[in-house]
Write a sequence for this structure.
C-alpha cells in the first residue's frame, strides 16, 4: 500500500498537483450544488461551428484536448469519441483524452482545473434517454448530470481555461458525435 501512495505522491509532484487534495474538484461540486439549488437551470451557450473550429484549431503541443462526455456510456460512444480524438490528434499533434462525466471528475478533474493551464476542453452533452427521480431530492438524475456538466464548465471558465459545449442532438448520441467529428475533420483540413 505504501508503495502506491508514494508513487501517487511522486506522480502528483511531477504533474504539479497535490493528489491528496482536490480543491478544484470541490469547486466544481460546489458549482453543481448552486445550480441544483436555483429554480432555473443555467442556459449555457453551445458552440457553433466557428467557435468549435477556433477551439480545436488552437490545439498544439504542449496543449491537450480533453473531450468530456456527459453522455450515456456505450461501446458506440467509446468508438465515436476515439474517432474524434484521432482527428484532432492527427491534425494538431496535440494529446487528446476522453472521459465520461461525472466519472472523470474524480480522476483527471483536478488535473484539468488545477494542473498546468494547457488544457482545451470540449464538453459533450445529450438528453438522458431515461430519467429517474433522485430519492429524497427535488431533481432527477438527468438534471443532476446536467448540473454537474454546468458546474464543470463554470469551474473551467473560472480558471480561465478554454471550454466549449457541444450538444449531441437526436436519439443516437454516438451518430451525432460522428457527425461532429466530420465537421471537425473539415475544419482542421482548412
Amino acid at each position: 500500500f505504501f508503495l502506491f501512495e508514494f508513487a501517487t505522491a511522486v506522480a502528483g509532484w511531477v504533474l504539479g498537483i497535490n493528489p491528496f487534495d482536490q480543491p478544484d474538484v470541490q469547486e466544481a461540486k460546489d458549482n453543481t450544488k448552486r445550480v441544483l439549488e436555483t429554480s432555473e437551470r443555467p442556459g449555457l451557450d453551445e458552440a457553433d461551428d466557428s467557435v468549435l473550429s477556433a477551439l480545436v484549431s488552437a490545439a498544439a503541443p504542449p496543449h491537450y484536448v480533453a473531450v468530456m462526455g456527459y453522455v450515456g456510456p456505450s461501446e458506440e460512444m467509446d468508438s465515436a469519441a476515439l474517432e474524434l480524438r484521432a482527428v484532432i490528434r492527427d491534425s494538431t499533434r496535440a494529446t487528446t483524452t476522453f472521459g465520461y462525466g461525472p466519472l472523470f471528475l474524480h480522476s483527471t478533474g483536478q488535473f484539468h482545473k488545477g494542473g498546468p493551464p494547457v488544457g482545451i476542453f470540449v464538453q459533450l452533452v445529450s438528453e438522458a434517454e431515461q430519467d429517474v427521480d433522485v430519492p429524497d431530492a427535488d431533481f432527477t438524475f438527468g438534471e443532476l448530470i446536467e448540473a454537474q456538466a454546468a458546474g464543470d464548465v463554470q469551474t473551467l471558465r473560472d480558471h480561465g481555461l478554454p471550454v466549449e459545449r457541444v450538444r449531441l442532438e437526436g436519439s443516437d448520441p454516438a451518430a451525432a458525435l460522428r457527425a461532429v467529428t466530420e465537421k471537425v475533420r473539415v475544419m482542421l483540413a482548412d
Residues 67 and 98 are 5 Å apart (CA to CA). The domain at 23-189 is CATH 3.40.50.10490 (Rossmann fold).
